[in-house]
Specification:
Blueprint lengths: L20 H9 L10 H4 L4 E6 L5 E8 L2 H20 L9 E9 L7 E7 L4 E9 L2 H13 L6 E4 L2 E5 L4 E2 H7 L5 H20 L10 E7 L4 E7 L23 H10 L2 H21 L1 H11 L7 H15 L10 H14 L3
Antiparallel strand pairs: 1-2, 2-3, 3-4, 4-5, 5-7, 6-7, 8-9, 9-10
């Protein structure tokens, strides 16, 4: 992370790639595919929307949407059941005291998700889940996160619909604004976690991890806090054609974290944390080798990015790794396979 931070600009409009039959079979095998009573297209039948403001009256880029009474009678019980599918394998007994409190819609970004708020009427506690259009690259991103990170991911697919659990944590942009002025001990731990997060994203080629696309999970500890950064947006899995796009420290939105690392970390310490994270990724890859290899086998022949992006990323990674292994890569899946193998094996 010694290079000067800068911003890489993603494509204005990401192409959507359908889920092929062979990937669908994989999803069925690992209990990701199921019959859903609500499709993404059903939620588009709202009749009215109003901007959703945060507690300070600032526009959140989300809109709360409203439906006709007849639509609500059909949609809301089905949405509650989907929540039960995510968390209790569809146990209907838990649904009696749950209901839909609000549905929000976001047109910012590629997936244009709906966010469903489910409330427990017994204690007013609430939770969320998301319904999006299913895209092959996003599914690959979710699976690679589940296999290679320390985070377990819950999601379901059905045709062109994708349902994702809510990933809790403080949004990165809010964290950078409100939580960096803390003790030196905590700042050092934040810097350490950002290096590790940077390494995780690069190892599995997850792009566009600017601050509003990840959250920070904060856990109080004996002498301070523990921090874990988690991706919440998987649209840009192996899609863009520039190496730096897969390194969070190159986005200007993450400059406060970069500056913190420069303040507290030298090259030797940074390399230690990078090596630690690569070792953990290697252990996870070995523990789930059958699942990972099957996923990469499916991913390799599929087109999930424009050809010019594929060729440029292959060129840049070949130069970065000083390896000819990328010369014959013509898909992002081929690049992902070679890059992951080299990253895991590389010693500093």
């Amino acid at each position: 992370m010694s290079e000067k931070p800068r911003e890489d600009v993603p494509s204005r409009k990401k192409f959507f790639y359908p889920i092929p039959d062979i990937l669908r079979s994989y999803l069925i095998r690992y209990d990701r595919e199921t019959k859903l009573s609500v499709q993404y297209s059903d939620l588009l039948r709202f009749t009215y929307q109003t901007p959703l403001l945060n507690k300070d009256g600032v526009n959140t880029l989300w809109h709360t949407v409203f439906y006709d009474e007849s639509e609500m009678q059909e949609l809301f019980p089905s949405l509650t059941y989907i929540y039960a599918l995510l968390h209790t394998d569809g146990d209907v007994e838990v649904m009696e005291h749950l209901s839909v409190a609000r549905i929000d819609y976001c047109t910012f970004g590629n997936s244009k998700p709906f966010r469903i708020r489910i409330i427990n009427r017994l204690n007013d506690n609430y939770d969320h889940f998301y319904i999006k259009t299913a895209d092959a690259s996003r599914v690959y991103g979710l699976e690679l996160e589940h296999i290679l990170s320390l985070n377990r991911i819950i999601y379901l697919t059905n045709g062109n619909t994708l349902v994702e659990e809510h990933i809790p944590g403080l949004p990165g942009d809010i964290f950078n604004t409100e939580n960096l002025q803390t003790s030196k001990f905590n700042q050092i731990r934040i810097s350490k976690e950002f290096v590790k997060f940077n390494e995780r994203c690069f190892a599995r080629l997850l792009g566009d991890m600017r601050s509003y696309n990840f959250v920070v999970d904060i856990t109080p500890d004996i002498e301070g806090n523990q921090y874990r950064m988690r991706a919440i947006d998987f649209d840009q899995q192996s899609y863009e054609g520039h190496r730096k796009f897969y390194l969070p420290h190159f986005f200007k939105e993450n400059n406060p974290l970069v500056m913190l690392g420069i303040k507290y970390m030298d090259d030797t310490t940074m390399r230690q944390y990078q090596e630690e994270e690569r070792s953990l990724i290697a252990h996870r890859a070995k523990a789930s080798s059958s699942r990972l290899n099957l996923l990469l086998d499916i991913m390799r022949p599929q087109e999930i990015s424009p050809k010019e992006k594929v060729l440029n990323l292959a060129k840049e990674l070949g130069e970065y790794h000083r390896s000819a292994a990328f010369d014959n890569c013509h898909t992002m899946g081929q690049i992902m396979t070679e890059h992951l193998a080299i990253t895991i094996a590389r010693k500093i």
